[in-house]
Amino acid sequence: MEPLLSLRTFLAEVEALGELREVRGAHWNLELGAIAELSYRSPQPKALLFSEIEGYPSGRVLTGSTGSARRLGLTLRLGDKHTDESLVEALRGKPSAWAAAARDFPVLPVTDAPLLANQVAGEINLLEFPVPRWHEHDGGRFIGTGCLVVTSDPETGVHNGGCYRMEVQDEGRSVTIAAVPGKHGAQHIDAWFARHGRAPVTISFGHDPLLLALGGTEVPLGVSELEYAGAVAGERVPVVIAPDTGLPIPAGSELAIEGWLRPGRLLEEGPFGEWTGYYSGSRRPDLAMEITRLYHRDDPILLGAPPGRPPHDYSYMRTVMKSAMIHDELVATGVPGIRKAWAHEAGGGRLFVGVAIEQRYAGHARQVGHLAAQLPAAAYMNRYVVVVDDDIDPADLDQLIWAVSTRTDPAEDIEIQRRTRGSRLDPMLPEGATPYNSRAVIDACRPWERLRSFPRVAESDPAYLAEVRARWGEVLG
Ligand SMILES: Cc1cc2nc3c(=O)[nH]c(=O)nc-3n(C[C@H](O)[C@H](O)[C@H](O)COP(=O)(O)O)c2cc1C
C-alpha cells in the first residue's frame, strides 16, 4: 500500500481525471524544460511525466503537477471538479483552520516505507538521477524545485518544511540550498549555526504536491508543514526518522537525502530562471550540504516545479493560494466590505494584486490598499495593489485596467510605500543593494464623494441582456 502523500497515488488520480501525459525520451539538458515551458503556455496544460530520459534508464521527472483547478483542488483535498473561481472560494478560511489544527496531527514515525528500498551512505552521486538543466542560462542542474527542505528549531524542536531551489554541486556529491534570509528554514539554520556550529537537514525530492504547495507558501513560523499537511489530509503524515540527523522524511517520498550544513561550507550557485520571469543575478556562494545518506524508491520520480516567465510551473498554484490567503487576511483585519482579492499569475502571484470592495466610507479604499500591500501573505515582493469597486472583477485584467484607466487621477490616486520587503530576486534591484522595494497602492475606486454622481457605466441592465440573449440566441450563437 502506498503511504500517505505518495506521489504515485496522486499520479493515479490525475491519470483518472485525464490530466496526465507521459513523455518518453526527452533530454534532461534543456529539452525537458522546454517541453514543460511550452506546455504551461498551452490552453489547458496537463501534468507531464517524463520517462526514459536520455541517458537514464531509470528515474523520472514530473512537471505541471498543480497547474489546473482540478489538479490543485485534488492536491488540496478540496475536490477535483473546480473552476479557478470556485477553487479560491473553497480554499477561503481553510489555511488558518489548517494551521490551527496542525498540532492535532503530529507526524507518525514508521520503520517501513518504499523509500527505504535503496539506501546509500557515504559516496553519493545525485547525478545518477535525471536532474534537469531547466533553462538555457541556468548555472547548473537544479534538483530542488518542488522539494521539501526540513529543518528544525534547535530550541523547541518544531520542524519547518520549505521549498528552496537547490543546485547539484561537486559532480553530484553535494547540493546548495538557496533559502533567502528571513525565510523560516534560513532562520532555523542560523539558529543551529549559532548554538551548535552546524545545522541538520533532510530533503525530499518527490512527493504528493501538497508538500510543494505548503512548502512553497508562507505557513506561519512555528507551524510544521508536515503537521499542516496532516490537517489538510485529515490524517497524520507517516515519516521515516533519518538516523544521522533525527529529522523526519515523508514516508511517501520518492527520493530523499539527509545531512548537515556548516557556516563556512559554501559553493557558488545560480543563476537560475526565477518566478519573476528573469534570471536571478550572478553566480554567488550559498550553503552547500554535506550529504550523509540517500534513500530512493525504484525508478524514482523527481517533482519538478521550474519557475520562469509566467505562466510557469507553479504560478497557478501561487495565484490560488495567495488570492484566498490575502482575502482571508483582509477580512481578519475587521475592515468591512471586502469582496474579492486576486494575486495575478502575470505577477507571479506576488507582484500585482487586485482587491474589490464595496465602499463604505471616505478613505476606505486607501485603507484596504495599504493593508493589502503589507499583509503577511503579501508583504514579500508585492509591487502593486489595485483597489476597485465591486462592479469590477479583480481577477479579470481587462476590467482591472479599465478601472485604472477611467477611475483614477494619477496625481491623486497612486500612493507609494517605500523601503518595503523586497527580494534579491527582484530584477529591478541593483546588484548588491539591500533588498528593499517600493510599492504603489492604486485607488481605482470611484471617488467616495462622487459615488452617486459618477457617470453611469454605459452597458445594458443585466436582466434586459439576459432577455435579449434568450430572444436572439440564434444570432448571438
Ligand atoms: C518551486 C519553488 C521554488 C522556490 N525557491 C525558493 C528559493 O530558492 N529560495 C527561497 O527563499 N524561497 C523559494 N521559494 C519560496 C518559498 O518556498 C516560500 O517563501 C516558503 O514560504 C518558504 O517557506 P518558509 O517560510 O517555511 O521558509 C520557492 C517556492 C517554490 C514553490
TrEMBL record:
InterPro entries: UbiD (IPR002830), UbiD-like_C (IPR049381), UbiD-like_N (IPR049383), UbiD_Rift_dom (IPR048304). Residues 113-310 form the 3-octaprenyl-4-hydroxybenzoate carboxy-lyase-like Rift-related domain. It comes from the Bacteria. One of its GO terms (molecular function) is lyase activity. Pfam families: UbiD, UbiD_C, UbiD_N. Keywords: Lyase. Its EC number is 4.1.1.-. Residues 12-91 form the 3-octaprenyl-4-hydroxybenzoate carboxy-lyase-like N-terminal domain. Residues 316-444 form the 3-octaprenyl-4-hydroxybenzoate carboxy-lyase-like C-terminal domain. This is UbiD family decarboxylase. It comes from Paractinoplanes globisporus.
